[in-house]
Amino acid sequence: KGAKTAGITKEGEAQVCIIGFTKSGKSTLLKNLTAAKPAISSHPYTTTKPEIGMMDYKGVKIQMIEIPSTFDPRYMSIARTADLIVLTSPQGEEKNIEGVMENHYVRTRHIVVDPMSDDAWLVKEKIWSALGLIIAYTKKLDYTTKRHKLSPMALPKNSTVKDFAERIHKDFIKDFHFARVYRKNRTVQAGLNYPLQDGDIVELHLKS
């Protein structure tokens, strides 16, 4: 009660915190997943404040935040509002760091990885899967090159064409005519309630 908190503005499609004991590979994981350059040392407690980087997953940006192993309540408060927590721990010792989460009343969903043995690409896949998101692509004409350009958009699983259109602009719902959805080797003309799948390419057509 009355404890100070430290907030970090969310950027990208999701915010993920990395939490673990000192020397558990947090900084190495952040470096391997993003372009961040946190201090990495053989000395314990090298990280004294949250370190931030952006992870790229198929064109989608995910904000990664390393929380210092001092578990300062100000910084642990960031974990309570994050979308996911990555706990760094050697296999078989997960209960220890999960206990720290409980002691700080952090109930955010989490996954456990071992940065010393888990491949960085596989960790990315594990993070993406735990976030419960899909990627749909907008298809629009680049008037400069006269070619269609695809841009990735992250959406929650079970999203529809309506969710997709609203993310682009709220007026697209009012002016919506139909959507053309390209899925693998077939094309579907769809309405607003059409469910999207990971990898779909969506071309919106508005009323003239």
Plain-language structure description:
Helices cover 25% and strands 33% of the residues. It is elongated. The chain has helices at residues 26-33, 73-81, 94-103, 120-131, 161-168, 171-174, and strands at residues 15-20, 51-57, 60-66, 84-88, 110-113, 133-142, 147-156, 176-183, 186-190, 201-206. It is an alpha/beta fold and 208 residues long.
Shape: elongated
Give the averaged pLDDT, no decimals: 90
Query: Low-confidence parts, pLDDT < 50 over ≥5 residues?
Result: none
In what order do the strands lie side by side in the largest sheet?
Answer: 2-3-1-4-5
How does the helix and strand content classify structurally? alpha/beta
- State the share of residues found in helices, binned by percent: 10-25%
> What's the main sheet like?
5 strands, mixed
* Helix segment tally: 6
CA-atom Rg in angstroms: 20 Å
Strand content: 25-35%
Number of strand elements:
10
Sketch the topology as an H/E string, one letter per element: EHEEHEHEHEEHHEEE
Termini separation (Å)? Answer: 57 Å
What is the topological layout?
Blueprint: E1 15-20, H1 26-33, E2 51-57, E3 60-66, H2 73-81, E4 84-88, H3 94-103, E5 110-113, H4 120-131, E6 133-142, E7 147-156, H5 161-168, H6 171-174, E8 176-183, E9 186-190, E10 201-206
Parallel strand pairs: 1-3, 1-4, 4-5, 6-10
Antiparallel strand pairs: 2-3, 6-7, 8-9, 8-10
Condensed summary:
This protein is of the alpha/beta class. It is elongated.
Features:
alpha/beta; single chain; 25% helix; 10 strands; 5-stranded mixed beta sheet; 208 residues
